[in-house]
Amino acid sequence: MLLTVNGTQHTVDVDPEMPLLWVLRDTLKITGPKYGCGVAYCGACSVHVDGALVRSCSLPVGEVEGAVTTIEGIGQPGALHAVQQAWVEHQVAQCGYCQAGQMMTALALLQENPSPDDAEIDEAMSANLCRCGTYPRIRAAIHSAAQKLQEV
Fold first, then answer.
1. For a tag site, which of 27, 56, 66, 103 has the least CB within 10 Å?
2. CATH code, domain carrying 17
3. Are residues 113 and 146 in the same domain?
4. Would you tell me the crossing angle of helices 118-125 and 99-112 to the nearest 10 degrees?
5. What is the pLDDT of residues 47-106, one digit of tens each?
6. Average pLDDT value for the chain
């Protein structure tokens, strides 16, 4: 089966029912998406498929239609994406486990709504859990990233 991840085409010999998360992590060694719950509840495994936010832990790889983008695939070589840069500037990560999924969700939000208010951010991010409780820093980072993206 052919799978395009972060702009690179891969041939993977796996069961089509295997969750995309395990193909990414175990077969392709792309470790940004994390296993959190296995039932698409926590958001740690979030990736984009053709620009749409998906939970890779519950998506069988055989159902993937389109290019997959993980946290490793945003930005340019040697340069952080505005969302990643804002996460660093606002020191969002505490333990960091959920942050790749948080950033992929934030990116999806900003692609749909380039200037979200607090309520829109809270609603979009509510499906991502952070056990460290960095939600205020996440919100501030999203506002910062939105501003950076509008300046470009």
1. 66
2. 3.10.20.30
3. yes
4. 130
5. 999 999 999 999 999 999 999 999 999 988 789 999 999 999 999 999 999 999 999 999
6. 96
pLDDT score recorded for residue 77: 78
The DSSP code for 103 is: H
Number of domains in the chain: 2
Question: Same domain for 51 and 12?
Answer: yes
Considering the domain architecture, whether residues 45 and 66 belong to the same structural domain is answered as yes
d(CA 118, CA 95) in angstroms, rounded, equals: 24
Bridge partners for 34 per DSSP: none
Task: Tell me which residue has tokens 């089509």.
Answer: 16
The fraction of the chain above a pLDDT of 70, given in percent, is: 100
Domain residues for 92?
82-151
Please name the amino acid found at residue 91.
Answer: Q
60: DSSP letter: B
Asked whether the beta carbons of 13 and 26 are under 8 A apart, the reply is no
**DSSP at 2:** E
Tell me the two tokens of residue 124. 């979009």
- Interatomic CA distance for residues 79 and 146, integer angstroms: 17
> How far is residue 94 from each of residues 22, 80, 98, 132, measured CA to CA in Å?
25, 19, 10, 7
Neighbours of 140 (CB within 10 A): 18
The pTM of the whole model exceeds 0.70: yes
